[in-house]
Amino acid sequence: MRVLVLGGDGYLGWPTALHLSDKGHEVAVLDNFARRQYDVELGAESLVPIEDLSTRTDAWHAVSGKRIARYEGDLLDAEFLFETVREFRPAAIVHFAEQRSAPYSMIDREHAVYTQHNNVVGNLNLLYAIAEIDPDIHLVKLGTMGEYGTPNIDIEEGWLEIEHNGRRDRMLYPKKPGSFYHLSKVHDSHNIEFACRIWDLRATDLNQGVVYGQQTPQTALDPRLATRFDYDAVFGTVLNRFVIQAVLGQPLTVYGKGGQTRGLIDIRDTVECIRLAVENPAERGEFRVFNQMTESMSVRRIAEVVADRFPGPVQIENLDNPRVEQPEHYYNVKHTGLVGLGLEPHLLSDTLIESMFDIVGANKHRVNDERLRPTVRWRGAVEAS
Fold it and tell me: What is the pTM of this model?
């Protein structure tokens, strides 16, 4: 199958492209390299050195004998996007190409506007490209569990059966996102559902939990194939960040009391979930939603697990929470759809955490210590603008 991976230079887009290629699909990647520019802006580059996209794709060809085509451009450039889709003729498009950080979106007005404009408009351009060029293309869109917020009821997979005043209906699950980034993902989900309903498109929305880990079987084949490993308080995901702090001998910075619960998923499961979604497409007119996570854990418990596994003393430090969120909450997420398609989850293990300690230890000289502690505060976004 021909698969176009948007955001194919990123933390998850690159290993996804390799995984799909390794499984026999004909893959192309598209990227505008904005994520690399955020590194320059924030002064915090990937902990693990990463090669440019040309070197990466050449290395993959040398290792596997398979080629991955490259397209450089922006989804906001509709003409470029339409030309790319016409030229590559994908059967499926995997969409990672969005600004993915909640803290980044909350820095100030400029970053909030950038995030929503980049994410929502780029996704709209993509929907029009599919509708006008080939409505049979299956869109696999990466959303986030953060779209749901923390409701005091079970979180279903995208849809909810409700009864109100004696009448029943099936509706999209209500959303209560926690940042302008998460709001952009909610807008995307509603726009995609609308496009499926009016244009008879097919789409799978993957509401992904917090991803941890840095290696997949494919990225481990050659150092030039490594994906990025973010450690800073803006882009570093929580478990990855705790591992890095432990290796550096710094306290694990838990926001508030750490009662906030997060859905988690191993990077190896992320790429496999996408393969399963690509190879088992939604029907025409169907907006299908999967909650892409394998387990849940409180932030405090994540810190305790890392501290327990590290072969040395580790402190846990509770900071004032820079976010606006419930300190403790009910969290019960349904996530059976991808398991039903064949996912065999990797749950958080000692072996995985220990391998991450080794990766961090070999690259700890690359850390900018000033970027480990939070500087973005949700209520401060108004003051900053």
Answer: 0.97
